Amino acid sequence: MEGFFFFKQLLIILGFSIPVIYIFHKIKLPSIIGFLITGVIIGPFGLKLIDDTAGIQFMAEIGVAFLLFTIGIEIQLSRFLKNLSEILLTGGLQILCTFLVGVGVGLAMQLSVSQSIFVGFILTHSSSALILKILKDRSDEDSPQGKISIGVILSQDIMVVPMMLLIPFLAGTSGPDAQLIIWKLFKSILIIVVILAAARYVIPFVLESLVNMKMRDVLVITSVVIAMGIAWITESLGLSLAIGAFLAGLALSDTDFTHQIISDISPFRDVFLSVFFVSLGMILNVDFLRENTGYILLASLVIIGIKAAIVFGLVKLMKYPLRVALLSGVMLSQIGEFSFVLASQGLRENIISGFIYQGFIGASVLTFIATPLFVSLTYHLLAAKKNITDIPSDEKSNKLDVDNHVIVCGMGLNGKNLVKVLKNTGIHYVIIDLNYKNIKEAKAKGAKNVIWGDASNIEILKRARIDSARVLVIAISDRFLTKRCLNIAKTIKPNLHIIVRTKYVADIDELMKLGADNIIPEEFETSIQIFSRVLRMFHVPNSIILVQGNIIRNKAYGVFREVRFTEEAFEQINQILAQGTIETYYIASGNEIIGKSLKDVNLKAQSGATILNIIRDNKTITHPPGGFVLQAADQLIIFGSHSAIDLALEILNEKRGGNFVQSSTS
Fold it and tell me: Could you read off the pLDDT of 166-213 as tens digits, one per residue?
């Protein structure tokens, strides 16, 4: 019967979530708030449809674990390690500063030193699930504010272990000594390194063996086992489920199986994650909130203000622009899941009173509700205020002395490769990037026209001489900045040719409306490369393949997006394919047609293809007669329909020793 009761609880949660989420979607509010309110309605302090939340809390933990697993996969281990020092610095400073301010707040409330330290502990953490959900919904994981937020919450999760160990000390009971605490922290870091190394080199080998079985269900099961298995191992060793799942995803991030694993895990993740947010709403005591509304609202505002201000200051200190600092501050301004764990432990150990505990829970849930609203408001205000001036002091000099150049926004892999080509071909360029490491690296390699700053800032673009530029290439990961940069650039110089790289198919139409001349969606360009290689296997000439690719690009990738003008694109392709084409065939030594005349070979009668010319000793023999005798190293220029060419090449290859050399003309 317990299993049936658990099933009933899940059904109630999901059933009530549907209408609430529908309403919130209609009024254009984040779905997370809808889930939280659903929890308030059906929970122990609402309609009391669910009283026992133990099973619900377990499902909630699974949801957070699945979310962190998919985030770990998408971050990629190589990029994570590259920015590890910055992650640890930002996260460590945030933890230290927030803890010290929390202690100060506790002392100002006339709490004891132990209680004040405990307030610092619970104030330190932010919500992994909430932040990652917001970033994922906005596809903002790769943005500067996304990377900063993820780095901070990972640092916070690692600090849960020593904080839990210190609670007995704060309660006045005997606890572990300092040496044991340091060992536990060292052990946590060691566990992380060992799991990453083992998963990195063992799991891909296992997955490859299973993939070769060609059984889809086996891969799905394996994906779940990997995510939950490593999470269980870290939980058993004293860390959290969430950080174990993140490590599992990070270990698999650079393998060939990531996309399929994400698609397999996503349904589980979305269901369990919705349960997590509902479970948070359930713990809000509505009666206590009603009786102490002013106290809880004030506490919520103080928490949000303190945490946002600390993160904002640290991010600005690291020379990030105003926009990134604002979004990072707002994103990390709520209380985290582990704070609830610490608070319940503190209540059991009598460190805090029941009144403080209930006030903390109420304020924390309100910060959860407020954060998505504040994030949406911040994005909206930043979008409206297009001309925020946030120029670094060392960049406020005169414009660069450059003309008829290319402006490259973003020095990721695409930007770096483009700059190499521009440098080798002698084309002038200007680099704009927000990552100061990339700027230093570019300068170290001899780049002169380099600007550190926000490419969507009008003053930065003017400094890059956008008024005299020939091409602007936008290759940055932040979707919001990409669109804003495009919009401002077209406003300054409407005839500027702008090429935009995007990861997101959903942005193509909007980028076109904003005036992008060329849009390169990574996913679709990969598809073009794949079908190009397939067509080459069927002897379709490069010229035809290039034309097909251009048709698809010119139609805004409508063939792939199932847009209505797909039929028009295919009609153009069919017209091209209906025309004749030209191929080159090289006669290698040992071929049976060597020493035979064209009349003996009789290729036209057998295939319908005609030998137009023969290249011998770098000389072209036009319309050779039937008695022309073939020699080794001759190149046959063959004309015909695609089917005729296919048959002709098949006949010639049967003679052994012939090599097909694909032509670039048609």
Answer: 777 787 655 555 666 667 667 777 777 777 777 667 777 777 777 667
328's tokens: 């990072």
DSSP state of 581: E
d(CA 232, CA 239): 9
Distance CA 301, CA 366 (A): 9
Q: Please tell me whether residues 324 and 455 are part of one structural domain.
A: no
Are the C-beta atoms of 536 and 661 separated by less than 8 Å?
no
Answer for the pair 241, 232: CB distance below 8 angstroms, yes or no.
yes
Same domain, 80 and 99: yes
In a domain, 572, yes or no: no
Instruction: Please give the pLDDT value at position 313.
Output: 92
pLDDT at 306 over 90: yes
- The pLDDT mean for the chain works out to 77
| Pair (375, 397) in one structural domain | no
Whether 651 maps to a domain, the answer reads: yes
Residue 277 lies in a domain: yes
Listed residues 357, 384, 411: the one ending a domain: 384
Residue 468, domain CATH: 3.40.50.720
Helix, strand, coil % in the chain, rounded to nearest 5: 65, 10, 25
End-to-end CA distance of the chain: 73
Written as one letter, the residue type at 23 is I
Map residue 430 onto helix, strand or coil: strand
d(CA 452, CA 61): 41
Instruction: Give tens-digit pLDDT for 575-609.
Output: 555 566 778 888 888 888 888 998 888 888 888 88
Q: Strand 497-502 relative to strand 518-521: parallel, antiparallel, unpaired?
A: parallel
| pLDDT at position 392 | 42
- pLDDT single digits (tens) 219-277: 777 777 877 788 888 777 766 676 777 777 777 776 666 666 776 677 777 777 777 77
Here the tokens at position 339 are 């704070």
Q: What is the pLDDT of residues 121-150, one digit of tens each?
A: 999 989 877 887 888 777 777 778 888 888
Based on the fold, state whether residues 237 and 164 are members of the same structural domain.
yes
pTM: 0.56
Indicate the residue among 358, 384, 410 that finishes a domain.
Answer: 384
Q: CA 85 to CA 76: how far, in whole Å?
A: 16
- Do 149 and 47 reside in the same domain of the chain? yes
Rounded Cα distance, 140 and 146, in Å? 6
Parent domain of 239: 2-384
Mean pLDDT of 541-557: 57
**Among the residues of 539-586, which ranges form H helices?**
542-554, 558-561, 566-578
Q: Is residue 549 part of a domain?
A: no
499 with 591, same domain: the answer is no
Looking at residue 415, its amino acid is G
Cα gap 240→548, rounded to integer Å: 51
DSSP, collapsed to helix, strand or coil, labels residue 519 as strand
pLDDT over threshold 50, residue 512: yes
* Side-chain-side CA neighbours of residue 227 (13 Å): 30
Q: Tell me: do 374 and 487 sit in the same domain.
A: no
Pair (420, 378) in one structural domain: no
β 610-616/635-640 pair status: antiparallel
pLDDT score of 558: 47
| C-alpha 268: how far from chain center | 19
Ramachandran angles phi, psi of 468, nearest 5° = -115, 5
DSSP type of residue 516:
-
Q: What gap in Å lies between CA 395 and CA 378, rounded to an integer?
A: 26
Q: Which amino acid is at 35?
A: F
The predicted model gives 491-509 an average pLDDT of 83
Number of domains in the chain: 3
Q: Using alpha carbons only, give the angle 219, 221, 224 rounded to the nearest 5 degrees.
A: 110
